[in-house]
Amino acid sequence: MRTQPFEAAIFDLDGVIVDTAKFHYQAWKSLAGELGFDFSERENEQLKGVSRMESLDLLLRVGGITEMPLTRREALANRKNEWYKEYLATLTPADVLPGVRSFLAHLRSCGIRTAIASASKNAPFIMDQVNIRPLFDAIADGNSIVKAKPDPEVFLQAARQLGVAPGACFVFEGAAAGVEGAIRAGMRVVGIGDGQQLARAHLIINSFQQLEPVILLSQITVTGDSGWGVCLNEQ
Ligand code: BG6
């Protein structure tokens, strides 16, 4: 039985804080088009949370391309990233998804520490574009990790930066690979989005708009093992 109270909340970035998942999809779809095959939103689901090069390999597999020299693969990944960055340059603070800022403010008012755990190398740029750095105490991202989700590395690194034990963290994740990684890290997970994709999460919600911050935290407490506690008082 867990006895640690919640001390930290760790957030996926793409598709959870900002809807960049649609930009990833558009850029990958353009690349597939150039390579001469179609790429559906359903196929795109398996790329969520996965590193850039692994995503490329999955995409190529969809197109029936199983062998390609590394230099060519790197060139294609860079090409996709250039398109993706053009989309990212259009982001503004208004693009933070509904309910996210108020939930983060509530967590911080309760003394719960906050971190980003993202597979993306573009995470710092995205955070600056939408001006959310001040809402986080730590950032673990694609620039600081070796193994991408579903490996637990990014979550464990975020917890380490916060100085909080993994068992005292809960994670907000939008991708199946991330849900798996958080579970392997020994953390509790709230899935944000499609219930079928995120079925392994301890709790699933559509968006942060679905529940008031206080209610969401109480839901997590109810869903968590006994012994997990959380501050419900707003300051
Ligand atoms: C994850 C996304 O957050 O970051 C993946 O869910 C993406 O779709 C991965 O492939 C790497 O992102 P980037 O920005 O480094 O290409």
Could you walk me through the main structural features you see in this protein, from its secondary elements to its overall organization?
- The chain has a six-stranded parallel beta sheet, with helices on both faces.
- The longest helix has 19 residues, at 70-88.
- It has helices at residues 21-35, 41-44, 52-62, 70-88, 100-109, 123-129, 153-162, 176-184, 213-223; strands at 8-11, 113-117, 138-140, 169-173, 188-192, 203-205.
- It starts with 7 loop residues before the first strand and ends in a 12-residue tail after the last helix.
- By secondary structure, it is an alpha/beta fold.
- It folds into two domains: 8-19 and 93-230, Rossmann fold (3-Layer(aba) Sandwich), CATH 3.40.50.1000; 21-88, Putative phosphatase, domain 2 (DNA polymerase, domain 1), CATH 1.10.150.240.
- Bound molecules: 6-O-phosphono-beta-D-glucopyranose.
Notable traits:
235 residues, 2 domains, globular, 6-stranded parallel β-sheet, DNA polymerase, domain 1, binds 6-O-phosphono-beta-D-glucopyranose, Rossmann fold, alpha/beta, single chain, 6 strands
Offer a quick outline of the entry:
This protein is of the alpha/beta class and 235 residues long. The chain contains nine helices and six strands; from the N terminus they run E-H-H-H-H-H-E-H-E-H-E-H-E-E-H. It is globular.
Low-confidence stretches: 224-235
**DSSP summary: helix tally:** 9
Q: Class of the largest domain, according to the CATH hierarchy?
A: Alpha Beta
Strand order of the largest sheet: 3-2-1-4-5-6
- On the 0 to 100 scale, the average pLDDT is 90
Q: Return the domain count.
A: 2
The multimeric state of the shown protein is: single chain
Topology pattern, helix = H, strand = E: EHHHHHEHEHEHEEH
Number of strands: 6
Bound molecules: 6-O-phosphono-beta-D-glucopyranose
**Biggest sheet overview:** 6 strands, parallel
What is the strand content? Answer: 5-15%
CATH superfamily of the largest domain: HAD superfamily/HAD-like
